[in-house]
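tokens incoming
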């Protein structure tokens, strides 16, 4: 159990987290082994339980983008079909193992309405069935093909493109930005990364300091990464934190006070700033990893996050 005091955490979140920690301890003592199916069901249940106020979006449809290996499913949200809007490719979290466009549907709807972008949510392939680099390849395919996709479906849009993702999805967004910095065919204008995992080596102090008792635990992070990297890849080389900076998009990193990934998030922003990039950090006091999926326990913080992303992408 965590020894870190949490005076800034909302009481409802603290109460829920205590119950979640007790349940996790009981599962460990019973010898239950976590499986990918359990991780997926858990994230889906968490989101359905705590993101409960559905929002209507004027136009929503499912489509696909041709990748190298298969057609990548996407869901498109256009909040104002008669208005030409910028584009956001949204990449859900889940440690590269869990999550889907269905799980994140209410969050994508909030983003579309709050940020006033055409949101394209990517249903990328998941580990362990599809290890690295399958999910990354899917996101790259969508980023490269999003303009043609929206044009084919008569979605009014501009050429201005943003990448937004949470947790493992934030890692994929950052990796795509680093991969594309030398390309001229696709320009990513901005990226907003919500408590992203940027260091696959687990080397930062907050992994240990906050890696027990705050929902996302050090052992679970290692479990996710073990499913994702199955062929002896150099994890440092694949970590956005250590990638060459080059010509990077405007970057907003949104982290949480009690998130074990916070040190790598801060280090990433400092590294971009040192290289001359336009990079900013927002820290949400009292919050834990995945608080966007826990909206009913922290509605004010979630509303602020959507507003912060909207202001940044609109600048």
């Amino acid at each position: 159990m965590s020894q870190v005091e949490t005076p800034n955490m909302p009481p409802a979140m603290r109460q829920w987290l205590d119950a979640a920690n007790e349940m996790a301890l009981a599962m460990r003592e019973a010898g239950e082994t976590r499986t990918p199916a359990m991780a997926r069901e858990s994230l889906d249940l968490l989101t359905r339980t705590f993101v409960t106020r559905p929002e209507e979006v004027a136009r929503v449809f499912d489509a696909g983008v041709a990748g190298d290996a298969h057609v990548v499913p996407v869901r498109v949200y256009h909040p104002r079909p008669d208005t030409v809007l910028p584009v956001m490719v949204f990449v859900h979290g889940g440690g590269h193992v869990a999550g889907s466009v269905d799980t994140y549907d209410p969050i994508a709807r909030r983003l579309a309405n709050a940020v006033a972008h055409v949101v394209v949510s990517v249903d990328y392939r998941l580990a362990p069935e599809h290890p690295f680099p399958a999910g990354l390849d899917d996101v790259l395919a969508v980023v490269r093909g999003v303009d043609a996709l929206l044009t084919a479906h008569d979605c009014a849009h501009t050429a201005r493109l943003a990448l937004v993702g949470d947790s493992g999805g934030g890692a994929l967004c950052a990796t795509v930005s680093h991969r594309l910095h030398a390309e001229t065919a696709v320009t990513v204008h901005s990226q907003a990364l919500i408590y992203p995992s940027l260091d696959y080596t687990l080397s930062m102090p907050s992994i240990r300091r906050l890696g027990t008792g705050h929902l996302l635990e050090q052992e679970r992070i290692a479990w996710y990464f073990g499913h994702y990297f199955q062929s002896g890849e150099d994890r440092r080389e694949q970590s956005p934190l250590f990638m060459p900076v080059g010509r990077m998009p405007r970057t907003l990193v949104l982290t949480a006070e009690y998130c074990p990934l916070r040190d790598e998030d801060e280090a990433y922003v400092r590294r971009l700033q040192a290289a001359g990039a336009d990079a900013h950090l927002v820290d949400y006091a009292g919050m834990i990893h995945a608080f966007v999926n826990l909206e009913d326990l922290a509605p004010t913080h979630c509303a602020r996050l959507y507003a912060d992303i909207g202001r940044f992408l609109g600048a």
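note: The beta strands are 59-66, 71-78, 85-91, 118-122, 157-166, 190-194, 250-256, 279-284.
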